[in-house]
Amino acid sequence: MRINPFNPNVSLMKYQIREIVDVAQRLSELIPGFKVENENIGDPIARGWSAPPFLKEAIKKAADDDKTYGYTHSRGYPNARKWVVEYAKRFSPSSTLDYECVLFASGLGAAISAIYHMLPKGVRVIQPTPSYPTHASMESFSAGAESIAYNLDPDNDWQPDFEHLEKQIVDHPEIAGILIINPNNPTGAVYDAATIEKMVALAEKYKLFILSDEVYFRMVYNGHKYVQITDIARGRVPLMVMRGTSKDVPWPGGRCGWVEFHNVDLDEDFRKYADSIKKRILMEVCSTSLPQMILSDIYDDPGYEKWLSDYNTQLEKNSNQIADILSESPYLNVNRTNGAFYMMPLFKDGVLNNRQTLPVPNDAAREYIERGVSRRDVPLDLRFCYYLLAATGICVVPATGFFSPYFGFRLTTLDRNEKRRIRNYKRLVSVIEQYVKSA
Ligand SMILES: Cc1ncc(COP(=O)(O)O)c(C=O)c1O
Fold first, then answer.
1. Given phi > 0 = left and psi -120 to 50 = alpha, else beta, which region is 152?
2. Measured from the CB, is residue 181 less than 6 Å from ligand 1?
């Protein structure tokens, strides 16, 4: 090539949630009868959930409407944006959100890319660690540098470590915003009003905006309640809220998410930044039309709240059952999941080393795994996840794949099949023991 078109910053992008699927695929070619237990991807449909009947009905109805097949307004149908405003007011009655401050994207993944893409070079958004990798990857890719992170504390129910967060903000004057993911992926934590207040107060003190990823906000249980950051930040801090249909409908294949820009009047620079994100999305012409057309048919259906309540009841039961089983392992520290559908058990200090293995069914598969873990810088939890996958088919994602400073793994609590769920997690406990004692 005359000029090398390869951008080396791609090494800043990690998405092990999917990368481990390639490993599973290769193993299924090498091991006859290999069966993968997908505990890696937050896709309810893949774990036995059906799309609710009212969603299917709404799609059928929309299929007869020619509008479904056309472009929408580049920021989203005005009626869909007005619906978002009304929906936001249901949870936050004094919200002053205007429909011109709502922006649709083809899934929040697309919105996340646009949000970080439009930051000027060198301007940063501090990320939680562990973090959802699309945020941390796209932020660092846009910046051309490793992410700047604040710790979530596993010894305090995965709550943000505010001392660390403030120190990072002070040490890094290039930080313009704070990302908060609540309920949290990958930890399953939910933040109470005091935590949200501290977050808003810090943003206010240092004149930062907050980016609040709330894609799981309807999925909170174990006695916790969702606290609306819009109420606490009103009049104080510029705020972007991200919501969508991937998790609480669940319709991840619908590719529909939206961004709400709150408190834009507080700061002219933030207003201009918000406008630049709208312009960036305009370049994509429009976001997926169908979900926008039927948002009200889904969320306003008389059956939706009951459906959601049953969904949450089941997720609460699943997650507590899994936490109880995994807590029996003397090698793990387990925090309960209080929202979303993830858990991140951590290995206790010193439990893992780079000699541990599990029996792998045949030579070809063993050689493949050994090659995969042979690099000197392979994190110890990735090594464990590879052996676990090859030996049992159980597919979880290493915590370090979420930019975690601790070794562990993230699982989903979605599996609807109770027998299989219990069997898999009991097996996981015994296989961890086998792995730890192997060297
Ligand atoms: C915290 C968080 N934000 C955003 C997304 C992406 O959602 P979407 O399907 O709308 O792209 C996910 C998906 O798992 C997520 O966990």
1. beta
2. yes
